[in-house]
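[step 3/7] inverse_fold.run input=structure_tokens len=171
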């Protein structure tokens, strides 16, 4: 004897009494409800996964909102801490500044941000000039660009002394 599933003689073609899906047809709304529920679960899971991946990327790409304090003057240091023919970087709001004491004892202050690619400049006492290490930009003690790729001079600040304090302010 063959081990075949026997079909009922009165069954329609393609249907079998022994098949698990045999029986009366299911209601159309029941099939749509299950399918809609599964589609909802899959869609929600895919959306949550996309958000979990994209949110940190977007937070990394967008810079934080920084409220810049409107500072017009700042104490850059003490007269006694800056030797003749030397320079010092100080914080002016959220940008750096450079304070220079010349060989004659005069104080000069400029923005320490190079006008070429926003690198931080430094004072070279042996050459008596301001120098940008990024692309060898050079400025004289008046802030004028004298060599290298910087397109314009440094922004100059006003320097005053109040007692022993050196106060730098925007012009």
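[step 3/7] decode complete -> sequence:
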């Amino acid at each position: 004897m063959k081990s075949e599933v026997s079909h009922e003689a009165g069954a329609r073609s393609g249907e079998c009494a022994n098949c698990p899906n045999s029986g009366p047809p299911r209601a159309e709304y029941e099939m749509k409800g299950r399918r809609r529920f599964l589609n909802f679960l899959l869609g929600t899971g895919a959306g949550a996964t996309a958000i979990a991946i994209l949110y940190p990327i977007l937070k990394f790409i967008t810079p934080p909102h920084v409220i810049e304090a409107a500072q017009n003057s700042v104490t850059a240091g003490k007269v006694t801490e800056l030797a003749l023919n030397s320079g010092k970087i100080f914080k002016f709001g959220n940008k750096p500044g450079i304070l220079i004491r010349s060989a004659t004892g005069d104080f000069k202050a400029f923005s320490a941000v190079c006008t070429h690619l926003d690198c931080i400049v430094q004072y070279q006492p042996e050459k008596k000039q301001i120098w940008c290490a990024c692309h060898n930009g050079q400025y004289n003690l008046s802030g004028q660009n004298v060599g290298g790729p910087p397109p314009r001079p440094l922004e100059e600040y006003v320097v005053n002394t109040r007692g022993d304090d050196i106060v730098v302010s925007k012009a």
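[step 4/7] annotate
The chain has two domains: 12-65, 73-170.
The chain is about 20% helix and 30% strand.
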